[in-house]
Every structure is written in C-alpha cells, then in structure tokens.
Amino acid sequence: MVPPPPRGARTRARLTVERLRDLYPAATELSHENPFQLLIATILSAQTTDRSVNLVSPELFRRYPTAEDLAAADPAVVETLIKPTGFFRAKTKRIIAASRKLVELFGGEVPNKMEDLVKIPGIGRKTANVILGAGFGVPGFAVDTHVIRLTNRLGLVATKDPVKIEYQVCSTVPKEEWTGLSLRLILHGRRVCVARRPRCEECVLNDFCPSSLVRPKRRRPAPAASIAGPPSSRPVPTPNRPA
C-alpha cells in the first residue's frame, strides 16, 4: 500500500510544475531519432553522463540502425564503440540482449506500453517511463536518483522508494504534466539542486522548498507615516510565503 503524500505536497507540486516549466524543456538530453535509439541510449546512460552517450551513439546507430542489426552485432565491435561510456562489457551484453528480445517479442519494434517494455532486459519502470514520455508522448513519471532527491527535498514525498514516489507524485500532479515534471526535475537536479551543495540561492523554488538553505529577501514594509502625513497611511504588509 502506498502512503499518502506529505501535507502541503499538492500545493508545492503545483508551484514546482509551474516554475520549472518556465525554465526547462520537457525533453531528455539523450540524442535520439526514434524510440529504439532512445531505448539503447537510456541503457548506455547508466553510471555515466548523457554527454558521454551522445558522443558514441551516432556511430553506434550508423552501424546498427535497427534492433535486428544490433541483435546480430559482434560484441567485440560494440564494446569498442561504447567504451567511453564505462562498464562497456556489461552494457554491450545488455543492449544486444535488449535488441534480441525486441526482435523475439515485438518484431524489432519498441512497444509503447509499460507492461511490454519491462519485459525487455535492462528496462525497469524508470527507463520505461522515459521511453513512454520522450519516445511516444505517453505520460509517465520516471524516477531516477535526481528525482528521488528533489521530490524529498521539496516535500512532495517522504520516501526513497521509486515506485512509491512515482505513485505519490502522480496522485498530486495532472497526468499531462507527469513526463514534463520528471524530465525537468532531472535537469534541475543536475544544474541547481545538486546532491552535495544545492545552489539554493539560485533556485526558483527556494521560497517554498522545506529544505532550502536560504530564503528570498522579504519585501520591505513602507516607511511609517510622519506626523504631518495623512492619517490613512499604513506600512505595506509583507506577503505570506506559499505553503
């Protein structure tokens, strides 16, 4: 059973959606031209940067443009091509195995349903949600290490379990925002809300984030009226911070 989200999570989620939408595109930084390339690139992105994957993927996909091609590839050649991404032997086995399963179960085409995607070796719910959202436009909330960190810091959830995070956030955010919010949280986690020393002073969420190390400057009240001033003059009240 998935517990309910923390108190105030719905309001914080709404503000997060609105503000991050103005900062980042709803897109993955992995270069791809179709769902097959996205699937392979996502597997390669484990424990490395998207930039590293983007450096090797053009030549990989030039040589092996389809699942059938990669399923029949020489592992030694693939290892050489993807070596800069790290853990290249294990990743070679995974992407070839994934390609073979695509051919075996789906005729070489990437399926567009969660229950089918998770049948492919190397594809869990996180990767499946990325493929659904960025590859097919099907709403899905991908939970990676950045999303785990940010959803907890923002008080959207109070759990580190990826499945519980997915369900809790999806219960507070409209379905059409699931993909965009997930992809934007990942980008915000890489650029601002980093793991060791979050740059709270730069963060557009710092006025309501429970974990913020800073607070925005409060608006100064207007000066009190002088003795000669009009009797109706009053200081301007400071607005309350959002919940």
Per CATH, what is the topology of the domain at 35-136?
A: Endonuclease III, domain 1
State the helix count: 11
User: Order of helices and strands, N to C?
Assistant: HHHHHHHHHHH
Helix and strand composition category? mainly alpha
The second-level CATH architecture of the domain at 35-136 is Orthogonal Bundle
Q: Beta-strand level of the residues, as a percent range?
A: under 5%
Helix content, binned percent: 40-55%
Low-confidence runs of at least 5 consecutive residues:
219-243
Counting DSSP E segments of at least 2 residues, the number of strands comes to 0
Question: Span from first to last CA?
Answer: 27 Å
The overall pLDDT, averaged over residues, is 89
Approximate shape = elongated
Please identify the top-level CATH class of the domain at 35-136: Mainly Alpha
Radius of gyration: 23 Å
Look at the structure and name the CATH superfamily of the domain at 35-136.
Answer: Hypothetical protein, domain 2
Largest sheet: none
Notes on the structure:
The protein is mainly α. It has a domain at 35-136: Hypothetical protein, domain 2 (Endonuclease III, domain 1, Orthogonal Bundle), CATH 1.10.340. Helix content is 49%, strand content 0%. It is built from 11 helices and no strands. The protein has helices at 9-21, 35-44, 50-63, 67-71, 75-82, 88-106, 114-117, 125-136, 145-153, 162-172, 178-191. Helix 1 crosses helix 11. The two termini are 27 Å apart.
